[in-house]
Write a structure and sequence with these properties.
This protein has one domain: Ferritin, core subunit, four-helix bundle (Ferritin, Up-down Bundle). By secondary structure, the chain is mostly helical. It is built from 6 helices and no strands.
């Protein structure tokens, strides 16, 4: 019985490693890694955005609080789509908060107090950085002919540029 169970497990493992798409296995590996790192960054930026949303203060509190809530919702809505793109092409993605912390490129901000101006500046920089990561992932997708991943990345780039634009315009008022 044990031999039959092991053979069944081995057969399932072999079946799970078959190629799911027409994308080359090496490209699946590269795209999956890029999208998984992007997913870690999106989670990190989501938490930072919510942190600043919760700790916003000052005379523009309501406007900034609502803006950052909207930005957080946009970021969170991307997470499932990113992870599912990785799975659709046959890759694996994040498994834990520890995994996120090991590969994210967006820095945390655990300060007890951050001025509203510094919050907006930091989020602006982080969104610009996220766009660059998305463009790099897009290039990998283009090279591999992964038009579906490239297409959703284009939408996320547009959304992220919009967030950066709003944060930039708010900050111009302060300069």
């Amino acid at each position: 019985m044990a031999r039959e169970a092991k053979a069944e497990i081995d057969a399932r493992r072999a079946a799970s490693h078959t190629q799911r798409t027409d994308i080359a296995p090496e490209s699946v590996k590269d795209i999956s890694a890029a999208l998984t790192a992007l997913l870690a960054d999106v989670f990190a930026l989501y938490l930072k955005t919510k942190n600043f949303h919760w700790h916003m203060s000052g005379r523009h509190f309501r406007d900034y609080h609502l803006l950052l809530d909207e930005h957080g919702d946009q970021l969170f809505s991307m997470t499932d789509d990113i992870a599912e793109r990785v799975r659709k092409i046959g890759g694996t993605t994040l498994r834990s908060i520890g995994h996120i912390s090991r590969i994210k490129r967006i820095a945390d901000n655990d300060a007890d107090y951050v001025t509203p101006e510094d919050m907006l500046r930091e989020l602006w920089e982080d969104n610009k950085s996220l766009v660059q990561s998305m463009r790099s992932a897009h290039d990998l997708c283009d090279e591999a002919g992964d038009v579906a991943s490239a297409s959703v990345l284009e939408n996320w780039i547009d959304e992220t540029q919009r967030r950066a634009w709003f944060l930039h315009e708010i900050r111009r008022d302060r300069a």
